[in-house]
Amino acid sequence: MIRAGLLFDTPHSIIRQKLRVSEDQIKYAECHRPTPQKQRGRLGKVKLRTPQRRKVDEWLQASPSHKFVPWRRVPNLDVSGFFQAEYRDSELG
After folding, report:
1. Sites in the chain below the pLDDT cut of 70
2. Which has the closest alpha carbon to 60: 77, 48, 47?
């Protein structure tokens, strides 16, 4: 509502009176965007690239029971650095 009043060049005194807001709130509405934006620096790196994602997708679709396997039990699908764990249950016998 504050921004709408500012768009029509309504004096601050009328905006303060009608909307019961402070001068600081009006100044904040003038200087800032109406909705918060993502902070691009905090997004981080992508864990899996497209070819690696396809390998994981193929493995998941190979059997309906694969969707219940925990991440630490997913076999090595040649995705360097992400899936290091192999089936240790099969090695133990």
Report:
1. 40-44, 77-93
2. 77
DSSP structure class, residue 71: G
58: CB partners within 8 A, 6+ apart: none
Residue reference for tokens 């193929």 = 58
Say how far apart CA 49 and CA 77 lie, in whole Å: 13
Place of tokens 């249950």: 89
What is d(CA 43, CA 45) in angstroms, rounded to the nearest whole number?
Answer: 7
Question: Cα–Cα distance between 92 and 42 in angstroms, integer?
Answer: 41
**pTM for this predicted structure:** 0.40
